[in-house]
Amino acid sequence: MGISVAMAQAEVPLKEASVLNRPVYLLSNDKLEVAIIKQGGAMLRVLIQGDAGGLSPFGNPEMVPSVPANRKLQGSMVGHFVAVDGFGSPSQQERAAGIAMHGEAYLAPWKLVSSEKQGTTATTKFTVDLPLSQETFTRQFRMVDGEHVVYVNSELQSNVAFDRTANWGEHPFLYPPFLEPEKTVVDMSGTRAKTRTGGQRLPLEQGKEFTWPMITGTDGKQYDMRIQPAGANWNGHTTTLMDPSKPVAWVTILNTDKNYMLGYVFKPQEYPWVQNYMAYNTNGWSGRGIEFATQPFDLPHREMVELGKMFDTSVYRWLPAKGKIASSFLMFWVKSPEGMTHVDDVRLENGKLTIEDRTTNKTITLTASLPL
């Protein structure tokens, strides 16, 4: 006798907890546990099940006791949050109308719609209203037993009767002790890059095009944007265009000393840009945003429309009248092989993720059974 779909689906009782003094839902399988903040929907923490180190890429302030309290994951821009509809500072008029930096979604309460399991796949769905933007955002998390992967599918619904542009950024924010000077290395599937113009405090020419990851500073020195230099005390912002010829875009962040890797895989037509935001301090609590987005920098809608394109690539998406646009990505968090120094390529093929360091012949192979 066959089992009906309704019978095969079982409610998954989510655990509720407090992480870093924030109420969260805990989503998990046998490999990973992810904490989702109820107010704003950010992935505040991700842990490897059974890992005695208890390290999260999004920061463990309890492991850095020397850090001043006013530097420890303050506010709502923590973990991996979504900036939609709006990425970065609003315009003067938008701010006066009540729009906050990075839009409404990461500040608003998220409604748990459903949480169920079918076979080996657990699915949890949330929705959040964006009243000022007159939009509705829906996000679905999926985790499969035996996999170090979190699959994230999202939709942005317009509630108005005219076409409009949309700004959408995924905003992972990395902190110590995963983030370490000279030890945490960022690689990605892009080459053509540019520094931001204005609002920076760094030894780089502003608005300068370069080839990721190397750039010559205003002091004549070569800077590798993949790593935080020892003793750096500056902030800056670069963007890199993802290679549109590749079937998927990817970005990885590897701690070569602690041997952990965080990675993302997504479609270059949905997120053409990876922004590299660096807030380097000498007090032991630097921060770094590795933000894949519809736009090259976190700027208001008006400025993106006026810019139109960069590197012959659009800097916004169209959201049709009373219609939807969708995006998806997968995130993986895994222990990396001893001696792995960087990533040359990430491939998603035939239900497998392959992450390669060709210099050291180190490879990570992960099961990724669901489509992107």
Structural class: mainly beta
Tally of distinct domains:
1
Query: Counting H and I runs of at least 4 residues, what is the number of helices?
Result: 3
Strand proportion, as a percent range, falls in over 45%
Short account of what is shown:
This protein has 372 residues and is mainly β. The chain contains three helices and 29 strands.
Primary descriptors:
46% strand, disordered N terminus, 3 helices, nine-stranded antiparallel sheet, 372 residues, Beta-galactosidase, Chain A, domain 5, single chain, globular, seven-stranded antiparallel sheet, mainly beta
Descriptive overview:
- This protein is mostly beta strands.
- The chain has a single domain, classed as Beta-galactosidase, Chain A, domain 5, CATH 2.70.98.10.
- It has three helices and 29 strands.
- Strands 1-7-8-9-10-26-20-19-13 form a nine-stranded antiparallel sheet. A seven-stranded antiparallel sheet has the order 6-12-22-21-18-14-15, with no helix packed on it.
- The N terminus is likely disordered.
Helices and strands in order:
Blueprint: H1 5-8, E1 9-11, E2 15-19, E3 22-28, E4 32-37, E5 43-48, E6 80-84, H2 92-96, E7 111-118, E8 121-130, E9 135-144, E10 149-158, E11 164-166, E12 168-174, E13 184-188, E14 190-195, E15 209-211, E16 214-216, E17 222-224, E18 235-242, E19 249-255, E20 260-266, E21 273-279, E22 287-293, H3 301-307, E23 309-310, E24 313-314, E25 317-319, E26 324-335, E27 345-349, E28 352-357, E29 362-367
Antiparallel strand pairs: 1-7, 2-3, 3-4, 4-5, 6-12, 7-8, 8-9, 9-10, 10-26, 11-25, 12-22, 13-19, 14-15, 14-18, 16-17, 18-21, 19-20, 20-26, 21-22, 23-24, 27-28, 28-29
